[in-house]
């Protein structure tokens, strides 16, 4: 059995990177900027449950004063990334615009998905079982045998993703 569907939702990986002289200042700047981004997402109609932190770190920024000398910490960078699920693809462009306007300066990409994936898979499984039983009965009849109990069921799942259209 097979299932195919047009994506109806997207997940954006986005966030804020902030730099400052101290780790505390970088964290404060980053938190303020990220709060603004999250606030704008909510204004755009994204539910709080659809905004999840995916990565957070603070790292020192090093400079190398002269060859042969050890690096010097000159500041800190705070990095906060979130995954944002957009359930209405008609609003995807608007959400992206609002993210950038709100201060998001990191974009990790956009992935597309189908909200009813499991329902589609279940229908494909039913079709596969009906097809397997039809074939088993055909082969059994052709060989003069009968179909007995199911001995084994296995499932192979593959995902091909969107395919480009060639003109």
Number of strands: 4
Helical content stands at 25-40%
Structural class: alpha+beta
What is the count of DSSP helices, taking H or I runs of 4+ residues?
A: 3
Multimeric state of these chains? Answer: single chain
Low-confidence stretches: none
Shape: elongated
N- to C-terminal separation?
Answer: 29 Å
Q: Compute the average pLDDT.
A: 91
From the alpha-carbon coordinates, what is the Rg to the nearest angstrom? 26 Å
Report the sheet with the most strands, covering strand number, pairing sense and barrel closure: 4 strands, antiparallel
Q: Going across the major beta sheet, what is the strand order?
A: 2-3-1-4
**What is the N-to-C succession of helices and strands?**
EHEEHEH
Strand content: 25-35%
How would you describe this protein?
- There is one protein chain.
- By secondary structure, the protein is of the alpha+beta class.
- It is built from three helices and four strands, in the order βαββαβα.
- The protein has a four-stranded antiparallel sheet.
- A hairpin with an 8-residue loop joins β2 (51-63) and β3 (72-86).
- The radius of gyration is 26 Å and the shape is elongated.
């Amino acid at each position: 059995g097979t299932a195919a569907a047009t994506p109806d939702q997207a997940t954006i990986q986005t966030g804020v990177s902030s730099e400052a002289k101290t780790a505390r200042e970088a964290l404060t700047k980053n938190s303020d900027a990220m709060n603004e981004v999250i606030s704008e997402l909510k204004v755009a109609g994204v539910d709080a449950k659809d905004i999840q932190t995916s990565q957070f770190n603070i790292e020192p920024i090093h400079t190398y004063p002269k060859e042969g000398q050890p690096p010097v910490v000159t500041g800190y960078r705070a990095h906060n990334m979130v995954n944002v699920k957009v359930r209405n693809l008609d609003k995807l462009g608007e959400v992206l615009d609002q993210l950038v306007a709100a201060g998001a300066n990191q974009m990790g990409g956009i992935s597309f998905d189908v909200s009813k994936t499991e329902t589609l898979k279940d229908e494909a499984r039913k079709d596969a079982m009906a097809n397997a039983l039809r074939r088993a009965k055909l082969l059994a009849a052709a060989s003069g045998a009968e179909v007995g109990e199911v001995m084994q069921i296995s499932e192979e799942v593959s995902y091909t993703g969107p395919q480009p259209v060639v003109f």
